[in-house]
Amino acid sequence: MDTMLFTAPQREAALVVLEQGKVRIVRMGGRSRWTLGRAAGGITPDIPLQSPIASRRHGEFLNHEGSWYYKEGGSINGTIHNGHFMGPETGGKTRMIALKNGDILRIDYKDLNRPDDRGVWMLFTTDLADHTWRYRNLQGQSLCRIGREPDQCQLVFPLPYVSACHAEIRVKGGNYVLADMGSTAGTWLNGARMVGPVPLKEKDHISICDCHMVFTGQGLLYTARSEHKSPGGQSSSGFRSGSDRGVILEADIQSKMVKDQSGHGQKELIRSVKLTVGKGQLVALLGGSGAGKTTVMNALNGMDQVGVKGRVLYRGEDLYQNFERLKYLIGSVPQENVVHDMLTVEEELRDAALLRLPKDMGMKGIKRQVDDTLAALNLTQKRKTQIRKLSGGERKRVNIGVELVADRELLCLDEPDAGLDPLAKKDLFTTLRNLAHDRGKSILVIIHDVSEIDLFDQIIMMAKVDGVGRLAFEGSIAAARKYFGVEDLSEAYVVISKDPKRYVRG
Q: How many helices (H) and strands (E) does the chain have?
């Protein structure tokens, strides 16, 4: 029996085309084939380009069974995909690559350190439905500040992990120069953290955590996560409910190795873990003892990358390669409480916010984050209560709040229900479900007791085979019951233990 895999719903694909300082957006829904090339000699491609270094039949975009591919058309100058040149294969055969959200295609010199002014930059995206891509013209401006506070900045990303004035672009000697302003999370240029001011070149990629900008030569094409919640829990962009939420994590982990007890050999902990986690979903990570649940979680959230063969994508980006930039979006909540008994709930969350948020947040901003977190966790009435006087379930929620107060987008919890009575357990998982569905948080939870499993959207089941953790199932609760042939999912442990090899593959 094959492992049943969860498939995230497809989002509308689009191509953002930057050419000669101008931006076009090509929505690709409704058609399965789009030709790309220079409009000349009576040839009019579906996506016409003006660049003289583009061939008339440069390439094409193809949709096959819901997935998009780019096929090189045997062009003279080739196409660069995510920094790697793709031209004709040996024998003149054309090349085709699968596309994922965030892929960059360029028609340019092979050496991207010497870009051609006539080149073309293209972004393949499935996030366009959120209307997050925008353009800001910098012409006529000598200064553009980028940051969290609208009274200080011209380009505003109102997200807690962005500094008040995070970075700036100034005109110096006729050039646009980018500089980080001492931010907490840092500013990244073309994948490297900035140190000192740097003159910008057309098509330079600027990143602040998950906020992205592309310098066009005359302005900035930019996008940012727009799911920041007000204290009332309402999304500034209107977070969608239901299944149309996209994917936050995609993992293809071939193995995870550690040193064995002798210190000389190696031991394999997990193998062939391929899965996806949806945005705004509450996901249970299950499995018997030694099945690799904690190992999988720490590989998925990037906290333990050593010995991992494979990769994890966070919103389409390689999490491991970009961990120093993306770590501000991920919260890890241990099983044991990390709170201080003698502090009040409000004091604990305030101290956590001071530690985790930018230093320039200010007490007004800190209070706003604390108030928002208290409301999200149903703890507003307990704000002045000492933690030592709280119930077990309330303490667990404060423990989660230590990470939530920093507006983490992905929360990873290790057995948060341990030691709770049935009512407190249900209250906790109901709160987590509301965080996922109402506030767009993606929450991955290791659990053993499945009595409240119907509150979850998705489960990941691990099995131990020959001493190695393997993926047995990923999907919805209803699909899991059908797959294992049980109504009570606690019986799935018994079913797997009888014949674990039956439920794994790869």
A: 8, 32
User: Whole-angstrom Cα distance, residue 367 to residue 214?
Assistant: 33
First to last CA, the chain: 12
State the Cα–Cα distance between residues 1 and 14, nearest whole angstrom.
37
Tell me 189's DSSP state: E
Of 125-134, 239-248, 447-456, which gets the smallest average pLDDT?
239-248
The pLDDT of residue 94 is 62
CA geometry: angle 41, 46, 47, nearest 5 deg? 90
Q: Which residues have CB under 8 Å from 389's CB, separation 6+? A: none
Task: Name the residue among 424, 423, 445, 422 with its Cα closest to residue 433.
Answer: 445
Cβ neighbours for 182, distance < 8 A, ≥ 6 positions apart: 163
239 phi, psi to nearest 5 deg: -65, 135
Rounded distance between C-alpha atoms, residue 216 and residue 135, angstroms: 9
- Judge residue 380's burial from the number of C-beta atoms within 10 Å of its C-beta, 0-12 exposed, 13-18 middle, 19 or more buried: middle
CB atoms within 10 A of CB 35: 18
Three-state secondary-structure class, residue 194: coil
pLDDT higher at 393 or 92 = 393
The β-bridge relationship of strands 84-86 and 134-137 is unpaired
Of 19 and 182, the one with more pLDDT:
182
Contact 441, 473 (CB under 8 A): no
Return the DSSP state at 478.
H
Which of the four pLDDT bands, split at 50, 70 and 90, describes residue 262?
confident
Which tens digit of pLDDT belongs to each residue from 24-55? 889 998 899 999 999 988 889 999 999 999 99
Average pLDDT value for residue range 394-401? 96
Nearest residue to 86 (alpha-carbon basis) of 99, 68, 105, 113: 105
Please determine, for residue 235, whether its predicted confidence score (pLDDT) is greater than 50.
no
DSSP E strands, 401-466? 410-414, 442-446, 458-465
Q: What's the CA gap between 304 and 306, in Å, rounded? A: 6
Q: Which of 32, 122, 19, 36 is nearest to 74 (CA)?
A: 36
Distance CA 384, CA 380 (A): 9
Kindly give, in sequence order, each residue whose CB lies less than 8 Å from that of residue 260, ignoring residues fewer than 6 positions away: 266, 267
Question: Degrees (nearest 5) of the Cα angle 100, 102, 103?
Answer: 65
pLDDT in tens, 180-198: 999 999 999 988 999 999 9
